[in-house]
Design brief:
Helix content is about 35%, strand content about 15%. It is of the alpha/beta class. It is globular. The relative contact order is 0.13.
Protein backbone atom coordinates (compact mmCIF):
# COMPACT_ATOMS: atom_id res chain seq x y z
CA UNK A 1 0.00 0.00 0.00
CA UNK A 2 1.39 3.37 -1.05
CA UNK A 3 1.37 5.94 1.79
CA UNK A 4 1.98 9.64 1.13
CA UNK A 5 1.94 12.37 3.79
CA UNK A 6 1.69 16.02 2.74
CA UNK A 7 1.01 19.49 4.12
CA UNK A 8 -1.25 21.92 2.26
CA UNK A 9 -0.89 25.63 3.09
CA UNK A 10 -3.58 28.25 2.56
CA UNK A 11 -3.27 32.04 2.61
CA UNK A 12 -6.92 32.87 1.93
CA UNK A 13 -8.92 33.35 5.14
CA UNK A 14 -11.03 30.52 6.48
CA UNK A 15 -14.30 32.07 7.65
CA UNK A 16 -15.43 30.26 10.77
CA UNK A 17 -18.91 29.55 12.10
CA UNK A 18 -18.20 31.86 15.06
CA UNK A 19 -17.69 34.82 12.71
CA UNK A 20 -13.92 34.86 13.24
CA UNK A 21 -11.34 33.99 10.60
CA UNK A 22 -8.26 31.81 10.49
CA UNK A 23 -5.40 32.90 8.24
CA UNK A 24 -3.05 31.60 7.19
CA UNK A 25 -3.60 27.94 8.00
CA UNK A 26 -2.39 24.54 6.97
CA UNK A 27 -3.73 20.99 6.83
CA UNK A 28 -1.67 17.82 7.09
CA UNK A 29 -3.15 14.90 5.20
CA UNK A 30 -2.25 11.35 4.29
CA UNK A 31 -3.24 9.31 1.25
CA UNK A 32 -3.29 5.58 0.58
CA UNK A 33 -3.46 3.87 -2.79
CA UNK A 34 -3.57 5.50 -6.22
CA UNK A 35 -5.94 8.15 -7.58
CA UNK A 36 -7.49 6.98 -10.84
CA UNK A 37 -7.53 9.10 -13.97
CA UNK A 38 -11.01 10.61 -13.54
CA UNK A 39 -10.60 10.96 -9.74
CA UNK A 40 -13.70 8.84 -9.12
CA UNK A 41 -12.24 6.39 -6.58
CA UNK A 42 -11.78 8.70 -3.58
CA UNK A 43 -12.80 7.68 -0.06
CA UNK A 44 -12.48 10.31 2.67
CA UNK A 45 -11.77 9.06 6.18
CA UNK A 46 -12.43 11.40 9.13
CA UNK A 47 -10.74 10.89 12.49
CA UNK A 48 -12.10 10.99 16.04
CA UNK A 49 -11.05 13.21 18.96
CA UNK A 50 -7.57 11.80 19.55
CA UNK A 51 -6.95 10.56 16.02
CA UNK A 52 -4.83 12.05 13.28
CA UNK A 53 -4.21 11.88 9.54
CA UNK A 54 -2.27 8.63 10.10
CA UNK A 55 -5.17 6.21 9.69
CA UNK A 56 -3.39 3.18 8.26
CA UNK A 57 -0.03 1.57 7.56
CA UNK A 58 3.19 2.05 9.48
CA UNK A 59 5.88 4.68 9.44
CA UNK A 60 9.44 3.41 9.64
CA UNK A 61 10.20 2.41 13.22
CA UNK A 62 6.55 2.43 14.33
CA UNK A 63 5.43 -0.10 16.92
CA UNK A 64 1.78 0.43 16.01
CA UNK A 65 0.09 1.10 12.66
CA UNK A 66 -2.42 3.86 11.96
CA UNK A 67 -5.57 3.94 14.07
CA UNK A 68 -7.87 2.20 11.50
CA UNK A 69 -5.28 -0.07 9.91
CA UNK A 70 -7.54 -3.09 10.40
CA UNK A 71 -10.08 -1.49 8.03
CA UNK A 72 -7.91 0.32 5.45
CA UNK A 73 -5.34 -1.33 3.20
CA UNK A 74 -4.71 -3.61 0.26
CA UNK A 75 -7.44 -6.26 0.21
CA UNK A 76 -9.12 -4.90 3.34
CA UNK A 77 -12.67 -3.56 3.71
CA UNK A 78 -11.59 -0.16 2.37
CA UNK A 79 -9.43 -1.68 -0.33
CA UNK A 80 -6.54 0.60 -1.30
CA UNK A 81 -6.00 -1.46 -4.45
CA UNK A 82 -9.30 0.01 -5.64
CA UNK A 83 -9.78 3.22 -3.68
CA UNK A 84 -7.70 6.33 -3.11
CA UNK A 85 -8.12 7.06 0.58
CA UNK A 86 -7.56 10.53 2.09
CA UNK A 87 -7.43 11.26 5.80
CA UNK A 88 -6.75 14.80 7.02
CA UNK A 89 -5.72 16.04 10.43
CA UNK A 90 -8.49 18.44 11.45
CA UNK A 91 -7.80 22.06 12.22
CA UNK A 92 -7.52 22.49 15.98
CA UNK A 93 -5.71 19.20 16.41
CA UNK A 94 -2.05 18.81 17.37
CA UNK A 95 -0.57 16.67 14.62
CA UNK A 96 0.48 19.30 12.11
CA UNK A 97 -2.69 21.10 11.04
CA UNK A 98 -3.18 24.62 12.40
CA UNK A 99 -4.21 24.55 16.03
CA UNK A 100 -3.84 26.47 19.30
CA UNK A 101 -0.08 25.83 19.54
CA UNK A 102 0.57 26.97 15.96
CA UNK A 103 2.31 30.31 15.42
CA UNK A 104 -0.09 33.24 15.23
CA UNK A 105 0.99 35.04 12.06
CA UNK A 106 2.85 37.40 11.82
CA UNK A 107 4.11 36.66 15.34
CA UNK A 108 6.36 33.75 16.23
CA UNK A 109 4.29 33.15 19.35
CA UNK A 110 1.64 30.40 19.47
CA UNK A 111 -2.06 31.26 19.54
CA UNK A 112 -2.77 29.43 22.80
CA UNK A 113 -6.10 30.85 24.06
CA UNK A 114 -6.19 33.38 21.22
CA UNK A 115 -6.99 30.55 18.83
CA UNK A 116 -10.64 30.88 17.74
CA UNK A 117 -13.24 28.36 18.82
CA UNK A 118 -13.78 25.94 15.96
CA UNK A 119 -16.70 23.68 15.15
CA UNK A 120 -17.18 20.41 13.29
CA UNK A 121 -18.62 22.52 10.47
CA UNK A 122 -15.34 24.48 10.33
CA UNK A 123 -13.28 21.28 10.24
CA UNK A 124 -15.32 20.01 7.29
CA UNK A 125 -15.20 23.35 5.47
CA UNK A 126 -11.40 23.35 5.68
CA UNK A 127 -11.26 19.81 4.32
CA UNK A 128 -13.57 20.70 1.44
CA UNK A 129 -11.26 23.59 0.52
CA UNK A 130 -8.33 21.17 0.54
CA UNK A 131 -10.16 18.73 -1.74
CA UNK A 132 -10.98 21.56 -4.16
CA UNK A 133 -7.28 22.44 -4.24
CA UNK A 134 -6.55 18.81 -5.11
CA UNK A 135 -9.10 18.92 -7.93
CA UNK A 136 -11.47 16.54 -6.18
CA UNK A 137 -15.08 17.73 -6.42
CA UNK A 138 -16.84 14.41 -5.83
CA UNK A 139 -15.95 11.34 -3.79
CA UNK A 140 -17.21 7.79 -3.53
CA UNK A 141 -17.67 7.95 0.24
CA UNK A 142 -17.00 9.80 3.46
CA UNK A 143 -16.57 7.59 6.51
CA UNK A 144 -15.68 8.20 10.15
CA UNK A 145 -16.41 7.12 13.71
CA UNK A 146 -17.39 9.23 16.73
CA UNK A 147 -16.22 12.80 15.96
CA UNK A 148 -15.32 11.43 12.53
CA UNK A 149 -18.94 10.39 12.13
CA UNK A 150 -20.03 13.92 13.02
CA UNK A 151 -17.82 15.21 10.22
CA UNK A 152 -19.31 12.69 7.80
CA UNK A 153 -22.83 13.89 8.67
CA UNK A 154 -21.79 17.52 8.18
CA UNK A 155 -20.48 16.63 4.71
CA UNK A 156 -23.91 15.16 3.94
CA UNK A 157 -25.80 18.30 4.99
CA UNK A 158 -23.34 21.07 4.10
CA UNK A 159 -22.16 19.69 0.75
CA UNK A 160 -25.09 17.73 -0.75
CA UNK A 161 -24.00 15.26 -3.39
CA UNK A 162 -20.28 15.68 -2.71
CA UNK A 163 -20.16 12.03 -1.63
CA UNK A 164 -22.20 9.19 -3.10
CA UNK A 165 -22.18 7.51 0.30
CA UNK A 166 -21.90 8.83 3.85
CA UNK A 167 -20.94 6.27 6.50
CA UNK A 168 -20.95 7.60 10.09
CA UNK A 169 -20.23 5.13 12.89
CA UNK A 170 -20.88 5.54 16.63
CA UNK A 171 -21.99 9.13 16.20
CA UNK A 172 -24.99 11.38 16.85
CA UNK A 173 -26.88 14.26 15.27
CA UNK A 174 -26.43 16.46 18.36
CA UNK A 175 -24.16 16.03 21.38
CA UNK A 176 -26.19 15.30 24.50
CA UNK A 177 -25.61 16.38 28.13
CA UNK A 178 -24.16 12.96 29.05
CA UNK A 179 -21.18 13.50 26.70
CA UNK A 180 -20.81 17.18 27.60
CA UNK A 181 -20.65 16.14 31.27
CA UNK A 182 -17.69 13.81 30.67
CA UNK A 183 -15.98 16.56 28.69
CA UNK A 184 -16.55 19.00 31.57
CA UNK A 185 -14.51 16.75 33.86
CA UNK A 186 -11.64 16.90 31.39
CA UNK A 187 -11.93 20.66 30.94
CA UNK A 188 -11.94 21.41 34.67
CA UNK A 189 -9.11 18.99 35.41
CA UNK A 190 -6.92 20.57 32.70
CA UNK A 191 -7.50 24.24 33.45
CA UNK A 192 -7.21 23.78 37.24
CA UNK A 193 -3.90 21.90 36.97
CA UNK A 194 -1.11 24.28 38.16
CA UNK A 195 1.23 22.84 35.53
CA UNK A 196 -1.18 24.01 32.82
CA UNK A 197 -0.13 27.54 33.82
CA UNK A 198 -3.26 29.14 32.43
CA UNK A 199 -2.34 27.88 28.97
CA UNK A 200 1.23 29.20 29.13
CA UNK A 201 2.83 25.77 29.62
CA UNK A 202 6.00 24.66 27.87
CA UNK A 203 4.97 21.93 25.38
CA UNK A 204 8.36 20.22 25.76
CA UNK A 205 7.75 19.83 29.49
CA UNK A 206 4.32 18.36 28.82
CA UNK A 207 5.80 15.85 26.38
CA UNK A 208 8.37 14.83 28.98
CA UNK A 209 6.26 14.79 32.15
CA UNK A 210 2.66 14.72 30.97
CA UNK A 211 -0.13 16.76 32.56
CA UNK A 212 -2.09 15.35 35.47
CA UNK A 213 -5.24 17.28 34.55
CA UNK A 214 -5.30 15.91 31.02
CA UNK A 215 -4.59 12.42 32.35
CA UNK A 216 -7.57 12.61 34.71
CA UNK A 217 -9.80 13.93 31.92
CA UNK A 218 -8.72 11.11 29.68
CA UNK A 219 -9.48 8.57 32.42
CA UNK A 220 -13.05 9.87 32.50
CA UNK A 221 -13.12 9.56 28.73
CA UNK A 222 -11.94 5.96 28.83
CA UNK A 223 -14.81 5.05 31.14
CA UNK A 224 -17.25 6.40 28.57
CA UNK A 225 -15.46 4.61 25.72
CA UNK A 226 -16.03 1.18 27.27
CA UNK A 227 -19.09 -0.47 28.82
CA UNK A 228 -19.73 -2.33 32.08
CA UNK A 229 -19.73 -5.57 30.08
CA UNK A 230 -16.38 -5.02 28.42
CA UNK A 231 -14.86 -3.88 31.72
CA UNK A 232 -16.10 -7.06 33.41
CA UNK A 233 -14.58 -9.15 30.65
CA UNK A 234 -11.35 -7.16 30.39
CA UNK A 235 -10.57 -6.71 34.10
CA UNK A 236 -13.05 -8.53 36.32
CA UNK A 237 -12.16 -7.90 39.94
CA UNK A 238 -8.51 -8.77 39.40
CA UNK A 239 -6.04 -7.01 41.64
CA UNK A 240 -2.57 -5.82 40.63
CA UNK A 241 -0.02 -8.44 41.71
CA UNK A 242 2.36 -7.33 44.46
CA UNK A 243 0.02 -4.54 45.58
CA UNK A 244 -1.53 -5.37 48.94
CA UNK A 245 -5.27 -5.89 48.93
CA UNK A 246 -5.54 -3.92 52.17
CA UNK A 247 -3.08 -1.21 51.25
CA UNK A 248 -5.00 2.03 50.83
CA UNK A 249 -3.45 2.82 47.45
CA UNK A 250 -3.32 -0.75 46.19
CA UNK A 251 -5.07 -1.01 42.84
CA UNK A 252 -7.47 -3.16 40.92
CA UNK A 253 -6.43 -3.89 37.34
CA UNK A 254 -9.05 -1.46 36.01
CA UNK A 255 -7.49 1.33 38.09
CA UNK A 256 -4.04 0.58 36.73
CA UNK A 257 -5.44 0.54 33.18
CA UNK A 258 -6.98 3.99 33.58
CA UNK A 259 -3.84 5.45 35.14
CA UNK A 260 -1.53 4.00 32.50
CA UNK A 261 -3.62 5.15 29.55
CA UNK A 262 -4.43 8.53 31.05
CA UNK A 263 -0.87 9.52 31.95
CA UNK A 264 0.60 8.09 28.76
CA UNK A 265 -1.94 10.02 26.67
CA UNK A 266 -1.06 13.29 28.40
CA UNK A 267 2.51 13.06 27.08
CA UNK A 268 1.58 12.96 23.39
CA UNK A 269 -1.64 14.95 23.06
CA UNK A 270 -1.63 18.71 23.51
CA UNK A 271 -3.92 19.92 26.36
CA UNK A 272 -5.09 23.06 24.56
CA UNK A 273 -5.98 21.04 21.47
CA UNK A 274 -7.95 18.71 23.73
CA UNK A 275 -9.91 21.68 25.12
CA UNK A 276 -10.66 23.07 21.66
CA UNK A 277 -11.72 19.73 20.21
CA UNK A 278 -14.04 18.77 23.07
CA UNK A 279 -15.60 22.23 22.68
CA UNK A 280 -16.23 21.45 19.01
CA UNK A 281 -17.80 18.12 19.97
CA UNK A 282 -19.98 19.78 22.62
CA UNK A 283 -21.21 22.37 20.09
CA UNK A 284 -22.10 19.82 17.44
CA UNK A 285 -25.73 19.94 16.36
CA UNK A 286 -26.63 19.00 12.80
CA UNK A 287 -29.73 21.22 12.98
CA UNK A 288 -27.80 24.45 13.71
CA UNK A 289 -28.95 27.07 11.22
CA UNK A 290 -32.15 25.16 10.44
CA UNK A 291 -35.60 24.91 12.01
CA UNK A 292 -34.73 21.42 13.16
CA UNK A 293 -33.09 18.12 12.24
CA UNK A 294 -35.65 17.34 9.54
CA UNK A 295 -35.04 20.61 7.70
CA UNK A 296 -31.28 19.96 7.79
CA UNK A 297 -31.72 16.44 6.44
CA UNK A 298 -33.89 17.67 3.55
CA UNK A 299 -30.60 18.82 1.99
CA UNK A 300 -29.11 15.32 1.92
CA UNK A 301 -28.56 13.77 -1.51
CA UNK A 302 -26.07 11.06 -0.55
CA UNK A 303 -26.95 7.59 0.66
CA UNK A 304 -26.62 7.47 4.44
CA UNK A 305 -25.35 4.28 6.07
CA UNK A 306 -25.83 4.86 9.79
CA UNK A 307 -23.88 2.39 11.93
CA UNK A 308 -24.38 2.19 15.68
CA UNK A 309 -23.15 -0.21 18.37
CA UNK A 310 -25.50 -1.97 20.74
CA UNK A 311 -23.87 -1.04 24.06
CA UNK A 312 -22.30 2.27 23.09
CA UNK A 313 -22.96 4.38 26.20
CA UNK A 314 -21.45 7.57 24.76
CA UNK A 315 -23.57 7.89 21.62
CA UNK A 316 -26.57 5.64 22.07
CA UNK A 317 -27.93 3.60 19.13
CA UNK A 318 -31.22 5.49 19.45
CA UNK A 319 -29.39 8.69 18.45
CA UNK A 320 -28.52 7.22 15.07
CA UNK A 321 -32.01 5.75 14.75
CA UNK A 322 -33.38 9.28 15.17
CA UNK A 323 -31.53 10.31 12.00
CA UNK A 324 -32.95 7.34 10.10
CA UNK A 325 -36.50 8.08 11.28
CA UNK A 326 -36.14 11.78 10.41
CA UNK A 327 -34.94 10.85 6.91
CA UNK A 328 -38.07 8.74 6.48
CA UNK A 329 -40.28 11.58 7.70
CA UNK A 330 -38.88 13.97 5.07
CA UNK A 331 -39.43 11.42 2.30
CA UNK A 332 -35.80 10.34 1.98
CA UNK A 333 -36.15 6.87 3.47
CA UNK A 334 -34.73 5.35 0.30
CA UNK A 335 -31.43 7.13 1.02
CA UNK A 336 -31.16 6.03 4.66
CA UNK A 337 -29.93 2.68 5.94
CA UNK A 338 -29.58 1.87 9.64
CA UNK A 339 -27.35 -0.94 10.90
CA UNK A 340 -26.77 -1.83 14.56
CA UNK A 341 -23.67 -3.86 15.36
CA UNK A 342 -24.21 -6.46 18.07
CA UNK A 343 -21.45 -5.49 20.47
CA UNK A 344 -21.05 -5.11 24.22
CA UNK A 345 -17.60 -3.51 23.97
CA UNK A 346 -18.82 0.07 24.17
CA UNK A 347 -18.12 3.20 22.14
CA UNK A 348 -14.61 2.17 21.09
CA UNK A 349 -15.99 -0.87 19.29
CA UNK A 350 -15.72 1.12 16.05
CA UNK A 351 -11.94 0.97 16.52
CA UNK A 352 -11.58 -2.40 18.23
CA UNK A 353 -14.20 -4.75 16.78
CA UNK A 354 -13.71 -3.96 13.12
CA UNK A 355 -14.34 -7.59 12.17
CA UNK A 356 -18.00 -7.14 13.16
CA UNK A 357 -18.72 -4.49 10.51
CA UNK A 358 -15.87 -4.65 7.97
CA UNK A 359 -17.83 -6.80 5.51
CA UNK A 360 -20.80 -4.44 5.71
CA UNK A 361 -18.61 -1.45 4.85
CA UNK A 362 -16.93 -3.37 2.04
CA UNK A 363 -20.33 -4.26 0.57
CA UNK A 364 -21.37 -0.58 0.72
CA UNK A 365 -18.25 0.53 -1.11
CA UNK A 366 -18.55 -2.27 -3.65
CA UNK A 367 -22.12 -1.19 -4.45
CA UNK A 368 -23.72 -4.33 -3.03
CA UNK A 369 -25.90 -2.40 -0.56
Amino acid sequence: MKIVTKTAKFTNPLYLESGRILEPYQIVYETYGELNEDKSNVVVVCHALSGSHHAAGRYEGDRKPGWWDSLIGDGKAIDTKKFFVICTNTIGSCFGSTGPMSKMYPSDQPYRFKFPVITIKDMVKAQKILFAKLGIDKVEAVIGGSMGGMQALRFAVDYPGFAKKIIPLAATHATRPWVIAFNEIAKEAIIKDPDFKGGAYDPKEIQEKGLTGLAIGRMAGHISFLSPYSMDRKFGRDYVPNEGLYELLGRFQVERYLEYNGYNFSKWFDPLSYLYIIKAINLFDLSNGYEGLEEALERVKSKLYLISFKNDLLFLPEEMKEIDLAMKRVGKGDLSHYYEVDSDYGHDAFLVEVDKFANYINEILEGKR
